[in-house]
Write a structure and sequence with these properties.
The chain is mainly α. The protein is built from nine helices and three strands; from the N terminus they run αβααββαααααα. α8 runs antiparallel to α9.
Length: 225
């Protein structure tokens, strides 16, 4: 019984599965088909009985192929094909990057300086009142969030919701942002839009200046969308 087991071990050492062959340098499915053809033996899969039988190839036959001039020629051509394919892929990536850069420059040029409009002519106090009303109306649609705003809310909180209200409801910010979406160079144009809208908001309501975000100041937090 032990002799039989030992014989099986030796046979296993002298044969390679298909995946074992392909782990060796230069071997691919095409190379196996070309140089080895049919397997020398098959064996049921020890892990999955329903799987197809494992293909086994004699190690000596694999090594004989690897020592042949035909194999050297094959691997040399294969390496050349791989390098050619890699070079072609690199050129495609470079052309795509150049095309995207050109499209971005074109969009930036066509967009130009954002033209911002502020549509609110009331006082700062009136603006806060409108902002509170809109904020609370939104809370009515969110029963899980009943954190209403009122005159007793903190100045920081009121400043934030008033700034958001002014940006989204009283300027053409959203329309300008939609023009950037999906465009090459859109991120850079978006930053221009944010800064231009912030300048307009700051000019109209300097009381909100500390709540107004600008990319040009190198801040890290973007305005709420």
């Amino acid at each position: 019984m032990k002799a039989s087991t030992k014989g099986k071990d030796i046979m296993a050492e002298q044969q390679l599965t298909l995946s074992g062959v392909k782990e060796r340098t230069g071997w691919t499915d095409a190379a196996v088909k070309r140089f080895l053809g049919q397997p020398d033996a098959t064996r049921s899969n020890p892990r999955y009985r329903s799987a197809a039988p494992m293909k086994l190839y004699d190690l000596s036959r694999v090594e004989k192929v690897e020592a042949s001039p035909a194999w050297s020629e094959w691997t040399a051509k294969s390496t050349k094909r791989s390098l050619t394919a890699a070079d072609a892929a690199q050129q495609r990536r470079r052309r795509a990057a150049e095309a995207e850069e050109a499209a971005a420059e074109k969009f930036l040029s066509e967009f130009g300086t954002p033209e911002v409009h502020v549509f609110f002519n009331g006082s700062h106090e009136q603006l806060i009142a409108y902002a509170v009303a809109e904020y609370n109306a939104a809370r009515e649609l969110q029963p899980w969030d009943r954190n209403y705003a009122d005159a007793a809310s903190s100045a920081e909180f009121l400043g934030r919701i008033t700034t958001n209200y002014l940006r989204h409801s009283c300027t053409n910010y959203d329309a300008l942002v939609r023009r950037c979406e999906g465009q090459p160079g859109g991120d850079e144009v978006y930053e221009r839009v944010v800064d231009a809208v912030s300048d307009a908001m700051d000019e109209a309501f300097p009381e909100l200046s500390k709540h107004v975000f600008r990319y040009q100041l190198g801040k890290q937090l973007a305005p709420s969308m």
